[in-house]
Design brief:
This protein folds into three domains: about 90 residues, MazG-like (Helix Hairpins, Orthogonal Bundle), CATH 1.10.287.1080; about 80 residues, Helix Hairpins (Orthogonal Bundle); about 55 residues, no CATH class. Helix content is about 70%, strand content about 0%. The chain has twelve helices and no strands.
Length: about 280
């Protein structure tokens, strides 16, 4: 049985050694040894969401732990890659070091310091040059990851197409398209065609996402915020009814809508408070 890695090691070096021992063929952990890139990918995505959740709730003690869990995922993937002779953790770190220096010429090079908006434009231009160099012959949308959340991927697809001129001039045209898509949803409902309804709902969601992009809104974050708001307001309904010894299923829709209105007013009042 191997000993735990020396606590005197630098924390990142100790973590890398711990992972190496977990993956050691004869003495490692059976579960860790069974994993591969595909099986671990789902955990990597989950840990990234847990980081975002801790930030959303301003739980910074949790954030420290969640960042550690996410770092473990990077180390896990790097260890498996090293076993296959592909690359190791040092190469992962070296690649991101080089990329950050390359993409910040205003900090590490001779480029003139500009505002953040101009730097964002240059960042995207540099990414486009890197894509062109590494993916010759591929399309504009070729390397947008399929595993991204649907809303986030929609915005990336739209933004990438917009860079080559495939875009509405302003948000007004998007409103017109939303009206058109709503009409198509209604038509699908009249036809009672489940597949068509699903397709048209998808089209409507895609266009609404495009509206957010045109208005510089992160629709993924805005949707998370809307989810949290719904949970908060519905929780008010549940708590108010519980104080009367009742449950939502015991209440009428009209009663719950009245309580929803109260919760909405509470939210508005909270926003008016100093510091909100």
């Amino acid at each position: 049985m191997p000993n735990a890695p020396d606590a005197a090691l630098a924390p990142i070096d100790r973590l890398i050694e711990i992972m190496a021992q977990l993956r050691a063929p004869q003495t490692g952990c059976p579960w860790d040894l069974e994993q591969d890139f595909k099986s671990i990918a789902a955990y990597t995505v989950e840990e990234a969401y847990e980081v975002a959740d801790a930030i959303e709730r301003a739980q910074y003690d949790e954030l420290k732990d969640e960042l550690g869990d996410l770092l473990l995922q990077v180390v896990f993937h790097a260890q498996m890659a090293q076993e296959l002779g592909l690359f190791g953790f040092d190469e992962v770190a070296a690649a991101i070091n080089d990329k950050m220096i390359r993409r910040h010429p205003h900090v590490f090079g001779d480029a003139v310091q500009r505002d953040s908006a101009a730097q964002t434009v240059e960042w995207e231009a540099q990414k486009a040059r890197e894509r062109a160099a590494s993916r010759k012959g591929d399309g504009v949308l070729a390397d947008i990851p399929l595993a991204l959340p649907a809303v986030k991927r929609a915005q990336k697809l739209q933004a990438r197409a917009a860079r080559v001129g495939f875009d509405w001039p302003d948000a007004e045209q998007v409103f017109d398209k939303i009206t058109e898509e709503i009409a198509e949803v209604k038509q699908a409902i009249r036809l009672n065609d489940p597949e068509e309804i699903a397709e048209e709902i998808g089209d409507l969601m895609f266009v609404c996402t495009n509206l957010g992009r045109k208005l510089n809104v992160n629709v993924e974050a805005a949707t998370r915020s809307a989810n949290a708001k719904f949970e908060r307001r519905f929780g008010y309904i549940e708590r108010t009814l519980a104080a009367k010894g009742r449950r939502p299923e015991d209440a009428s829709l009209e009663e719950m809508e009245a309580l929803w209105g109260e919760a909405k007013q509470i939210d508005k009042a909270a926003k008016r408070q100093p510091g909100q």
